[in-house]
């Protein structure tokens, strides 16, 4: 497999390839050409070939791609078997929804702890895990070494908490807090999620002049 750095747009397409290939597997499709895959995904065949070439190219001329093999390779690139320990901070409306509805394990993560500062929430449970008080965060991280934090807290609390979590050894943030974290450590990765941005993109595409779509 190629060790070239992969561009962000290609990385962003990989989970979608993985998902479509999972659908194909469930339909018991054994192999697929880049043209057929492109049609299903609304991409061009050359885009798909170019993307897969970043990893050394998986297909065979005249055969196409073996669906299971390709899904496994992309899964490996995405680290779906990495079993990364994950904690969620802020067990309010959003935090509870994420804990209950995101299948962490299918995506290489294991949700191992949920924290909140509200004494009324502490001691209750969500998604089968007890909500723990923030005061126990340090000890929990020392014992369980989570690597990723899902931040579902108000934006005012996000930076301070992220700094603390970095000092406790966390290196990945799935950040829903509507605040773009300032992180100087190059080893720490932040994925900011703004559902509102996605809605605005939709709104733009609906209203933009057709030549700009
Ligand atoms: P919520 O008020 O229901 O929940 C927030 C929870 O965070 C509360 O349980 C609160 O006790 C806890 N909390 C506050 N400060 C904390 C701290 N320092 N440490 C630990 N826990 C703390 O709010 P909701 O609706 O769940 O939203 C949470 C955040 O997510 C908000 O900032 C909201 O703006 C944002 N949000 C982001 C979206 C996105 O697309 N990125 C979509 C929806 C909400």
Task: Describe the protein's architecture and organization.
With 213 residues, the protein is of the alpha/beta class. The protein has 2 domains: 8-77, Arc Repressor Mutant, subunit A (Orthogonal Bundle), CATH 1.10.10; 84-197, 3-Layer(aba) Sandwich (Rossmann fold), CATH 3.40.50.720. Helices cover 43% and strands 17% of the residues. The protein has 8 helices and 9 strands. The strands form 2 sheets. Strands 5-6-4-3-7-8-9 form a 7-stranded mixed sheet. Helix 1 (8-26) packs across helix 4 and helix 2 packs across helix 3 (45-53). The longest helix has 19 residues, at 8-26. The mean pLDDT is 92. The chain binds 1,4-dihydronicotinamide adenine dinucleotide. 1,4-dihydronicotinamide adenine dinucleotide binds at residues 89-95, 115-118, 121, 134, 152-155, 157, 161, 176-178, 193-196.
């Amino acid at each position: 497999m190629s060790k070239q750095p992969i561009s962000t747009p290609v990385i962003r397409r990989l989970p979608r390839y993985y998902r479509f290939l999972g659908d194909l597997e469930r339909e018991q499709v054994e192999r697929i050409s880049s043209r057929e895959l492109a049609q299903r995904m609304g991409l061009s065949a050359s885009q798909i070939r170019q993307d897969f070439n970043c990893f050394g190219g998986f297909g065979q001329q005249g055969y196409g791609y073996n669906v299971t093999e390709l899904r496994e390779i992309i899964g490996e690139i995405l680290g779906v078997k990495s079993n990364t320990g994950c904690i969620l901070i802020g067990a309010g409306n959003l935090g509870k929804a994420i804990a209950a509805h995101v299948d962490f394990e299918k995506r290489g993560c294991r949700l191992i702890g949920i924290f909140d500062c509200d004494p009324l929430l502490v001691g209750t449970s969500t998604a089968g895990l007890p909500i723990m008080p923030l005061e126990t965060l340090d000890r929990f991280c020392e014992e369980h070494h989570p690597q990723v934090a899902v931040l579902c807290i108000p934006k005012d609390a996000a930076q301070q908490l992220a700094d603390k979590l970095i000092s406790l050894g966390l290196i990945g943030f799935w950040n829903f807090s509507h605040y773009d974290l300032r992180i100087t450590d190059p080893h720490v990765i932040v994925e900011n999620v703004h559902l509102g941005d996605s809605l605005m993109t939709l709104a733009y595409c609906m209203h933009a002049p057709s030549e700009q779509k």
